[in-house]
Design goal:
Length: 274
């Protein structure tokens, strides 16, 4: 019994020591780059597949811009719109390879993954089940297996959004509502808690906190961060100008407003109780 206890204690101490080392490494990395957003789960950075990067040189320039902001993990999330001609998963993977190859020499510590931003309709569940749509990469920023990034028309009716969350969860998916600050019906009903309880997670656009594109959503986005509803940040970058990866104001607001564990959750994707 004594030996067993000693063995368990040694195992615990080893795990604790590994976790501590891992945490110290992350803290060192974060200190090196400074306080910044380390991951981006929403970006239209893949070349020539949607209304984002037009070609490979523009996509590479967008990567450079994101890297300069401190971002080290990007999930490329091209639009998927039911009933329209969407690039196949094979095409998306080819474009991802092309972009990774183009920037790998320049940025050894940058990782780019593949997802989709899905414009919700009930039919997308079949498309997901058939593998026609990309789910989000598991483990990045703490995302679980079967997580999907979903958007709606800005004026979509609340019962439709709620029904979408219920259906997606019923079929085993975890829906992240993209740029949740945009949906006026959710805000008008203050339905954030109800949606969370139904299984939704929320992504906030960093551009939503700036005076500029999406300035109309700044107040809501800030409130969602302040009240602790936000789960993930995304740049929703489409280009190098008005809709570029621009995170500084968001990072500043988060560092002033949030507790350290919540700040680390939002900026570094560190999943822990806070
Ligand atoms: Fe988007």
């Amino acid at each position: 019994m004594g030996r067993q206890m000693a063995f368990l204690k040694a195992g615990f101490l080893q795990r604790f020591s590994n976790q501590k080392k891992e945490q110290e490494k992350k803290t060192e990395n974060n200190k090196e780059i400074g306080l910044c957003m380390r991951y981006d789960i929403h970006s239209h950075i893949l070349p020539g597949v949607d209304d984002g990067a037009k070609d490979l040189s523009m996509a590479a320039a967008m990567v450079r811009q994101a890297y300069a902001e401190g971002i080290r993990q990007i999930v490329a999330t091209p639009h998927y719109t039911p009933g329209k001609q969407n690039p196949s998963v094979k095409t998306l993977r080819e474009r991802l390879d092309m972009l990774q190859t183009a920037v790998s020499d320049e940025f050894a510590d940058l990782e780019i993954y593949l997802g989709n931003e899905i414009f919700y309709s009930p039919s997308v569940i079949d498309d997901l089940d058939m593998g026609k749509i990309m789910m989000m990469p598991e483990g990045i920023a703490g995302m679980m297996d079967h997580t999907v990034l979903v958007e709606f028309a800005p004026g979509e009716l609340y019962p439709i959004i709620y029904d979408a969350v219920k259906r997606l969860t019923l079929y085993g998916y975890i829906p992240i509502l993209a740029h949740v600050e945009r949906y006026r019906e959710i805000e008008a009903r203050n339905a954030y808690q109800e949606l969370k309880e139904a299984g939704a997670q929320f992504q906030i656009n960093t551009a939503g906190l700036k005076n500029g594109y999406q300035a109309q959503f700044t107040k809501t986005a800030r409130k969602l961060i302040r009240d602790g509803w936000a789960d993930y940040l995304g740049t929703d970058a489409h280009n190098l100008n008005l809709r570029r990866a621009d995170t500084k104001e968001t990072v500043e607001y988060i560092s002033k407003t949030c507790s350290v564990p919540y700040r680390d959750r939002l900026l570094y994707g560190e999943v822990q109780a806070f």
